[in-house]
Amino acid sequence: MSAGLLVVGSIALDSVATPFGQTADAPGGSAVFFSAAGAILHPVQVVGVVGTDFPLDALKTLEARGVDLSGVERAPGESFRWKAKYSYDLSSRETLETRLGVFADFRPKLPPRFQDSRYVFLGNIDPELQLGVLDQVKSPELVACDTMNYWIHSKRDVLLELLRHTDILMVNDSEARELSGDWNIYRAARWILGHGPRMTVLKQGEHGALLVSSDATFKVPAYPLQEVFDPTGAGDAFAGGFMAYLAATDDLSPGNLRRAMVYGAAMGSFAVEKFGIQGLAGVTLADVRARVRVFKDLVHFEVDEERGA
Amino acid sequence: MSAGLLVVGSIALDSVATPFGQTADAPGGSAVFFSAAGAILHPVQVVGVVGTDFPLDALKTLEARGVDLSGVERAPGESFRWKAKYSYDLSSRETLETRLGVFADFRPKLPPRFQDSRYVFLGNIDPELQLGVLDQVKSPELVACDTMNYWIHSKRDVLLELLRHTDILMVNDSEARELSGDWNIYRAARWILGHGPRMTVLKQGEHGALLVSSDATFKVPAYPLQEVFDPTGAGDAFAGGFMAYLAATDDLSPGNLRRAMVYGAAMGSFAVEKFGIQGLAGVTLADVRARVRVFKDLVHFEVDEERGA
């Protein structure tokens, strides 16, 4: 079985400096990382906006992988640009510049065939726009959304309204702390579950990700990597793998949600191995499954109920 | 089967302030946390020193749980004291005072029956003293040691000599980074394996612990806790659980080493739930096994080789 998968989010030109090199105006943004990862598992429908300066080649590459860009508007003006620099150990980054460009006036409009999507990911954009997208989807089966500290502080009421229509809030653990006002991530997760979502996925960077629902907690560590080049987009690639796995299997059982977490973590690991979306280029389903098996071994142990300890 | 388990380390009076309260001159130190946790699984032999001011009740409580203190010297003078304050979210701490007292002139001497110990844990003390203890053990089966940044910088050569006689280096990930000069923990682990130990256990606080050998990597997350009161001693409680599980089962197979990691993580979780060693008081083997089962569920997923994704 299979079901339509929709993402709305930023389509950006990223200029990123890490200790290993830098990029200038490379394709990025939440919708791009999400669909570059997700398309490995399932077709993705993208809603977003680019300026007249956006390189068409980058979009064509995504289309060739099964990404439907008919919801991407081309507006007069400059594309959204983001410039950042990472610390020597990649553990922190500084945003040097954010230029909204055509994103400032973006009002997402879904092509008719996108309105039947059953799996919806609302990437980190203004919660009013996220709600606006959701209004256009006829009967979604699963709605997941991301947000960030900026919206948590500037549009808290709208965000809380969005949460009431969201099945899964997928944020960094620092964002969960900000939103809930609680530094303990398990209490922060409970707070989230009390405000609408029936699950929350907390992204923890080099420490993996956590799924919390009312009756289960599941942890997937990060994939063991000896070389990390660019952490940009890892969270969105995770979201793409997670949502695309669920759409491809059309199965929301607890066991399948756990597998989706592992597919997400595998996608995040490919994303960080090269600059921008290059790490996801050329990755096959077999590559992903090989990493899923490594994850299985990474955490596997047998309980010893009958032994002498 | 069962084998002697020896620990050398500090026996301290800790004064710790957290957002939830504070203690003054409470029993602590690496050897105390190690044995308070380890004794739940297996008898522990302790080598250390206390001053004439150390409360005998605290030691009697340990003895009642199967800790052999005949290697603890009572020297004229003050006990080792450590004073620290944690940040509001317990993520960092500041050491306010360290008074070595009788620890300054400590020269560990093993009672004859301790010299047959087969499982040896060298807690975080001067690497010269760690080597001095090891010299007195006749034929150890497994030697694990801890260290800290202070020794990495001030006694690097002695520490490297110690590593050549160590099976498992068990340190915080920040210490592994300092020692190896590499911020990537998997490369840091490889560096360690190239300098003597055949395994390394990297303790990652709220993110669990990692076991790396030449042919396997195993990750155990931290136990999901909604209430953490005092992180002091979690790493030593982990070490106590890990080593005591190995001594109790006398089994160094890869599968049993993984289980030992989980028992260690369970002990660390009990340690942080109350101040000092109180979190470990009253914990039974059944309590520990219940947490081991929770760990199993926390990371469990089935691989889907045959499915359609």
Largest sheet of chain A: 9 strands, mixed
**Count of runs of 4 or more consecutive helical residues of chain A:** 10
Give the SSE order of chain A as H and E letters. EEEEHEHEEEEHEHHEHHEEEHHH
List low-confidence stretches of chain A: none
Query: Helix/strand-derived class of chain A?
Result: alpha/beta
Number of distinct beta strands of chain A:
14
Distance between the termini of chain A: 47 Å
Whole-number radius of gyration of chain A? 19 Å
Strand content of chain A is 15-25%
Largest interface: A-B, 52 and 52 residues
In short:
The structure is a homodimer of 309-residue chains. By secondary structure, chain A is of the alpha/beta class. Chain A is built from 10 helices and 14 strands.
Structure, described:
2 copies of one chain form a homodimer. Chain A has 309 residues and is α/β, with parallel strands linked by helices. Helix content of chain A is 35%, strand content 23%. Chain A has helices at 30-38, 56-64, 127-136, 149-154, 156-163, 173-180, 185-193, 234-249, 254-271, 285-299; strands at residues 5-8, 12-18, 21-22, 26-28, 44-50, 67-74, 80-86, 93-99, 119-122, 142-145, 168-172, 199-203, 209-213, 217-220. In chain A, the strands form 2 sheets. A 9-stranded mixed β-sheet of chain A has the order 6-5-1-9-10-11-12-13-14, sandwiched between helices. In chain A, α2 links the parallel β5 and β6. In chain A, α1 (30-38) crosses α8, α3 runs parallel beside α5 and α8 (234-249) runs antiparallel to α9 (254-271). The longest helix of chain A has 18 residues, at 254-271. The radius of gyration of chain A is 19 Å and the shape is globular. At the A-B interface, α7, β14, α8, α9 and α10 of A face α7, β14, α8, α9 and α10 of B.
